[in-house]
Design a protein that fits this description.
Length: about 230
């Protein structure tokens, strides 16, 4: 993949955002008119020394070293039916190159939970869900507070804007990773009081936690897969 592919990749990512907005309309809501700016951002990532950027006729992947692992977020295909062919080939090739160039074997790959074709491919390549981002749409109870960290009984996290390619309609509160004593009630009240339109709760997959969060109106927007990709043909 080269810098000249950045505009095409940004257009693929724009389509992905619009597709994902059907799954979680606030969390994934795309900002308008950002394709050219996103292309400029992707151009820098494609040429960065810490990344591996690959493409096929149907899609692309950008993987980067983050600490001891490789991280994949920008990974899109059109049409979606190509995940088990082009998608798997891109992920396996990116993993091989990240291991060779940056000495990282384990990958983290982010996807919408409802993107079943993509998540199915990840599972077939031996990756498993290590983290889930639960989200809850909120009705703001006050003006938007200044971005920054805040905490209360049973929670701590950060209030701030969404990434520039998304527009949830206001600030987002992202809790630190959920633990045994996380107070969901307190998160909702405190975030709404500071003008947040969305609360995000990263958590390890937990069958005991899921029913209570679902009952309260939370849902999983994204799954974070972890592992060393392996071809099912091996």
């Amino acid at each position: 993949m080269s810098a000249v592919d950045a505009q095409w990749a940004a257009e693929l990512m724009e389509k992905r955002r619009r597709d994902y907005a059907r799954y979680s309309p606030v969390f994934w809501r795309p900002a308008e008119g950002v394709v050219d700016l996103h292309a400029q951002f992707l151009r820098g990532r494609i040429t960065a020394e810490t990344t591996v950027a690959l493409r096929t006729e149907h899609g692309f992947i950008i993987g980067e070293r983050r600490g001891s692992k490789g991280f994949v977020d920008d990974f899109a295909l059109e049409p979606p039916g190509e995940w088990d062919s082009d998608g798997a080939a891109l992920l396996l090739a990116a993993a091989e190159r990240l291991a060779a160039a940056h000495a990282v074997a384990t990958l983290v790959v982010v996807t919408a939970q409802a993107d079943l074709a993509k998540s199915g491919m990840l599972a077939r390549l031996s990756l498993t869900v290590a983290e889930q981002w639960w989200v809850r749409e909120l009705q703001p109870l006050g003006p938007a507070a200044a971005p920054g960290r805040f905490s209360g009984p049973g929670f701590s996290g950060t209030l701030g804007p969404a990434p520039g390619v998304y527009d949830p309609g206001g600030p987002v509160f992202q809790n630190d990773r959920a633990g045994e004593h996380t107070d969901v009630d307190a998160i909702e009240r405190a975030a709404a009081a500071r003008g947040a339109v969305l609360a995000v709760l990263p958590a390890a997959p937990d069958p005991a936690l899921a029913p209570e969060l679902s009952r309260r109106g939370w849902h999983v927007a994204s799954d974070w897969y972890l592992g060393i990709p392996e071809s099912p043909m091996r």
